[in-house]
Design a protein that fits this description.
The complex is a heterodimer of chains A (300) and B (358). Chain A has 300 residues and is mainly α. Chain A has a domain at 29-225. Chain A is 71% helix and 4% strand. Chain A has 11 helices and 4 strands. In chain A, strands 1-4 form a two-stranded antiparallel sheet. Chain A has a two-stranded antiparallel ribbon with strand order 2-3. In chain A, strand 2 and strand 3 form a beta hairpin. In chain A, helix 1 (6-37) packs parallel to helix 5, helix 1 (6-37) packs antiparallel against helix 8 and helix 10 (244-264) packs across helix 11. Chain A is globular and about 60 Å long. Chain B is mainly alpha-helical. Chain B has a two-stranded antiparallel sheet with strand order 1-2. In chain B, helix 3 runs parallel beside helix 7. Chain B is globular, with a radius of gyration of 22 Å. Classes of the chains: A mainly alpha (300), B mainly alpha (358). The A-B interface holds A 34, 38, 40, 42, 88, 91-92, 95-96, 98-99, 102-103, 105-110, 113-114, 116-117, 121, 226, 230, 233-234, 237, 241, 270-271, 273-274, 276-278, 280-281, 284-285, 288-290, 296, 298, 300 and B 65, 131-132, 134-136, 138-139, 141-143, 146-147, 149-150, 153-154, 156-157, 210-211, 256-257, 260, 263-264, 267, 271, 308-311, 313-314, 316-318, 320-321, 324-325, 328.
Chain lengths: 300, 358
């Protein structure tokens, strides 16, 4: 029989919530891009990876103080996201979706290979940012300060984003563009600018996610983004892709369930990465468009 | 179908005979300008062409967006490898933990192992297809990708059956160039017959409009399942051949990124074109190898580029992006090669003389 104490459960939940927040932050980027372009942005995980390298260079190599470094990293990543959008996705606006998808795969290849050439494949250790890695002890529960910061950062960013989307003109333009480009254009919305904005925000959030991720898993190599990227995409799909709150719920759900399953069935920890997919498939079987996804009705 | 010996038929047969003679000569080492390295690349080209066909059947002809090919390949590769290896070799390869007894004792001819590999992939796809084929579009893609990853992770953990992360080495190199091209030819013929059969037409109807297809009395689920299973069978065969060609496989060889590679082949060749898939499989696989000179350092006029490992793949990705951005129909679109089409290029053009291939 599996017995556990309450502090143990708290410990695992704290870990789960931390990982969940990371998933949520990156998942938002996937879901925003999907919402507006109907594109699985395979390059998002490599934007995440590049962002980790930016942070490494800013803090370890150029030894900037971390607040400045953090701002620079977020800006650089956002710019990278916009550049990718302008060069690889914008020319394909009228093309079939599969071309867009292949373009995303191409960008992903390019970034990974470029990183291998420029940064070499040697794994680097991610620098500590602020006091995030310090350990806090509450009775038997020991967590990194990260476990407290991560949810706060995530919630602040989430509510700012929701405010932006629901209450501002830019947000209105995003919502309109995600429904219909043509109509949005007729309403005087600059669709291209709106899409760039989406990439900017999504990439900036990925940068924040990357920095926090680096605190928990402090190793960088050119393919570091692949697994987190895939899982964050799964989180977005679980929540119903295109829905920002859904992405957050999906991310948290995935993070917590993954940690709890590994804890409960520790013999199966080799299968850790498979759980995400199993959860995904189970949820898709009952809700084919995710938990909060809009259901599509085929019109004849 | 006309069965008479028309000119295109004769030409096709002549080409096949020529191909067979060439392959036979190459395998005998009678062509001095083709070394072992080139043979290996040609083998890989053929294998990728088979895998491309498998993906094209589902994605290009049936319009289902599946990214699960890597998983089915893994199944095919492992089944083929483990059944075709001799018990002694298996014992040596599984030195960390011994192989399951029943599996260790099995030894069968390569062709049986290969077929069983394909069948295993097909059976698995049947069970996966039941729940997954109800999904649509990107959700189907991500679910199939998920299953492929699950398969890979299971293989990574089944130490006594798959040798875990160390993978299986010393797979008998039975699949030489004759094997690869023979199987490829078989697959191409099979695909051509399939696509032009009533089933193939049903697949294409589903691709073009599911609801219309259903209204015409096509059983959606049955046909989708059939396309999925056949595609997995071909992927399994491709995986089995690949195992024999590369002689060592690990679960991480079958990451989902492998499905991207195949998707690239299909899209660059043109979705829904068998000719396109075969041509682009050869072009892409050969280009990847040919670009190796970039890694070794070279001089471009006054500029000397030092040795940079990985530069090849950077250039390759850039080329890829360029093709996608400026040439998005792929090499062939959804057209096929046909002798009539070839003749028409040389014939003065008449108005309205747009012959789409058979």
């Amino acid at each position: 029989m599996f017995t556990f104490t309450f502090p143990q459960l708290l410990q695992q939940l704290a870990n789960g919530v931390t990982v969940g927040c990371l998933y949520a932050l990156v998942a938002i980027g996937y879901t925003m891009v999907y919402g507006i372009l109907r594109l699985i942005n395979f390059a998002h995980c490599d934007i995440f990876m590049m962002s980790m390298y930016f942070c490494y260079y800013a803090i370890t190599v150029f030894s900037l103080p971390w607040p400045i470094a953090l701002v620079l990293v977020v800006v650089a990543t956002a710019v990278l996201g916009v550049i990718i959008e302008k060069s690889a996705y914008k020319p394909l606006r009228e093309a079939p979706r599969i071309s867009l998808l292949i373009s995303a795969i191409g960008v992903s290849y390019l970034l990974e290979n470029l990183a291998t050439v420029v940064f070499t494949g040697v794994p680097r250790s991610f620098p500590a940012v602020g006091d995030m890695q310090e350990i806090l002890t509450f009775g038997e529960v020991r967590v990194m300060k990260l476990a407290i910061y991560a949810p706060i950062i995530m919630l602040v960013l989430l509510f700012s984003l929701l405010f932006l989307i629901n209450k501002t003109k830019t947000g209105m333009a995003m919502r309109a563009s995600s429904k219909d480009f043509e109509t949005a254009r007729l309403m005087g919305i600059n669709v291209n600018k709106t899409i760039s904005m989406t990439f900017l925000i999504g990439s900036a959030l990925a940068a924040v996610g990357a920095v926090i991720w680096g605190q928990r898993y402090p190793q960088i190599q050119p393919f570091v983004g692949v697994m987190p990227g895939l899982k964050c995409f799964i989180a977005a799909v679980i929540g119903g892709i295109g829905n920002i709150k859904g992405a957050v719920v999906g991310g948290m759900l995935l993070g917590v369930m993954e940690i709890l399953i590994v804890w409960r069935f520790s013999a199966l920890s080799g299968y850790k990465d498979a759980f995400a997919f199993i959860i995904l498939i189970v949820i898709l079987l009952f809700k084919p468009t995710g938990l909060f996804g809009e259901t599509f009705v085929d019109k004849v | 179908m006309k069965k008479s010996l028309s000119l295109p038929r004769i030409l096709t047969i002549a080409c096949l005979v020529l191909l067979a003679v060439m392959v036979q000569l190459i395998s005998m080492g009678a062509l001095p300008f083709i070394d072992n390295y080139m043979i290996r690349v040609l083998n890989l080209c053929a294998v990728y062409a088979i895998l491309g066909l498998s993906m094209n059947l589902v994605n290009g002809f049936t319009g289902m967006f599946s990214l699960g090919q890597a998983g089915f390949m893994a199944v095919g590769a492992y089944v083929t490898a483990l059944f075709a290896m001799t018990p002694e070799v298996k014992e040596r390869v599984f030195y960390l933990e011994p192989i399951e007894e029943w599996l260790g004792a099995i030894h069968m001819p390569f062709i049986v192992a290969l077929l069983l590999g394909g069948l295993a992939a097909a059976v698995l796809s049947f069970f996966i297809g039941f729940p997954v084929l109800r999904l649509k579009g990107d959700y189907l893609a991500i679910a199939t990708l998920g299953f492929a990853e699950i398969i890979r992770i299971i293989f990574l953990n089944l130490q006594t059956i798959t040798n875990g992360a160390m993978g299986v080495k010393n797979i008998p190199p039975t699949a030489d160039i004759r094997w690869c091209f023979a199987v490829l030819t078989l697959m191409v013929v099979f695909m051509l017959r399939l696509i032009n059969s009533s089933y193939g037409r049903a697949f294409k109807a589903i691709r073009d409009d599911e609801i219309a297809a259903e209204a015409m009395g096509i059983n959606l689920f049955k046909h989708k399942m059939m396309s999925f299973i056949l595609s997995s069978f071909i992927a399994g065969i491709g995986g089995g051949l690949m195992a024999s060609v590369v002689s060592a496989i690990t679960p991480n060889l079958f990451r989902f990124t492998l499905a991207y590679d195949i998707l690239l082949i299909v899209v660059l060749g043109g979705q829904g074109s068998i000719t396109g898939t075969v041509v682009s499989a050869f072009v892409i696989t050969a280009a990847k190898e040919w670009l190796r000179w970039l890694d070794a350092g070279f001089s471009l006029g006054p500029i000397t580029v030092p040795e940079i490992a990985g530069l090849r793949m950077v250039i390759f990705s850039v080329l890829l992006m360029v093709i996608i951005l400026f040439y998005r129909q792929g090499f062939f679109g959804s057209r096929e090669f046909s002798w009539e089409g070839l003749f028409n290029i040389f014939r003065p053009k008449k108005k309205g003389d747009k012959k789409e291939a058979a």
